[in-house]
Write a structure and sequence with these properties.
By secondary structure, the chain is of the alpha+beta class. It has 13 helices and eight strands. The radius of gyration is 20 Å and the shape is globular. The relative contact order is 0.16. Bound molecules: iron/sulfur cluster (2 copies).
Length: about 300
């Protein structure tokens, strides 16, 4: 059963697939409750909710016996030129991964139902009360590195995670353990000091949080350290040795449009809302919205970011 599911996951386009018994994530209770208590989640209010569900998948899908974790490689075949340009995260080059992953996860769930009969299964991608990274590690498809991202030893960290909860009993894989060892490259490379406590992200200092999620201005001391990044930040991934041999993905939906490939700083500065809607139709960047993106760009020119707030 396990190998049939894994083979189908690989056929669908996932790079890895692993399995764990649902024996809860009770071991994270103290860490997670402390994280919430000291407001480590900053403005990500949704992390405060469904605390018990996050530790106990059977409260999300009744009678969950197994957890399946899949990874999808998104390392691009071609990097958008960074010279004389603003930089966006590689995961946002093409179509919104939520949609791309969900279609394929549903295909895998349908395969399981067709192959194994009447079963319950529910798929998640960055949605619902599921601690995806913790389950990915338990399922053996990667470990949470000092940069706090899931790293697969052969594919690296440019991967999306999908989770399926099911009432099927499936033989588990061996959980992965950290292979970071004495490496500290991401910690020292982070320009914002957001990884000063390895394996823990200081969200308030993370550029990716500041230019996507946060409604507040970056801390004054980070001025000049945002490294031309206007949507996300890949620095702690770009430097990771496990990404040195990352292979390009084969997912056509993740390819950037020709318009995006050709954009340079001057094009970003004069970007109109109509062009934004055209270039980023169906992209993850669309979720942030035109005005937030323009506000990020404005920061680099020390214009008044509040000019964009009222729009
Ligand atoms: S994404 Fe950027 S700012 Fe955030 S931890 Fe990584 S290197 Fe630091
Ligand atoms: S750069 Fe080094 S310490 Fe950081 S995640 Fe990669 S292997 Fe781990």
């Amino acid at each position: 059963m396990k190998e049939l599911i894994r083979n189908e996951a690989l056929r669908i386009g996932f790079s890895h697939c692993g399995f764990a018994v649902n024996d809860s994530l009770e071991e994270l209770r103290v860490f997670y409750s402390d994280f919430i208590r000291r407001k480590g989640h900053a403005g990500l209010k949704y992390l405060e909710t469904y605390f018990e569900k996050r530790l106990h998948p059977e409260l999300v899908l009744e009678n969950t016996k197994s957890v399946i974790a899949v990874l999808m490689n998104y390392y691009p075949p071609q990097i958008i030129p960074e010279k004389d340009n603003f930089i966006i995260s590689k995961y946002a080059y093409g179509a919104d991964y939520h949609h791309v992953m969900r279609v394929r996860l549903n295909e895998l769930v349908n395969f399981m139902k067709f192959s194994f009969g009447d079963l319950q299964a529910k798929a998640f991608v960055d949605s619902g009360a599921v601690l995806e990274k913790a389950w990915a590690q338990k399922c053996g498809v990667g470990w949470q590195g000092k940069n706090t991202l899931i790293i697969n030893k052969s594919t690296g960290s440019f991967v999306f995670i999908g989770i399926i909860l099911t009432d099927l009993e499936i033989e588990p894989d061996v959980p992965e353990t950290s292979r970071c060892g004495t490496c500290n490259i991401c910690v020292t490379a982070c320009p914002a000091g957001a990884l000063d406590t390895p394996y823990q992200l200081n969200i308030r200092r993370c550029i990716a949080y500041l230019n996507i999620e946060s409604r507040e201005e970056p801390p004054a001391e980070l001025k000049g350290k945002l490294a031309d990044r206007i949507y996300g930040c890949d620095i702690c991934q770009d430097v990771c040795p496990y990404n040195r041999f990352a292979l390009p993905h084969l997912v056509s939906e993740f390819l950037p449009s020709e318009s995006l490939m050709q954009m340079r700083k001057t094009d970003w500065l004069v970007l109109t809302e109509a062009d934004f809607n055209r270039i980023f139709a169906g992209s993850a960047i669309k979720r942030a919205g035109y005005h937030r993106l323009k506000r990020s760009i404005a920061r680099f020119y020390e214009e008044d970011p509040h000019e964009y707030e009222s729009n």
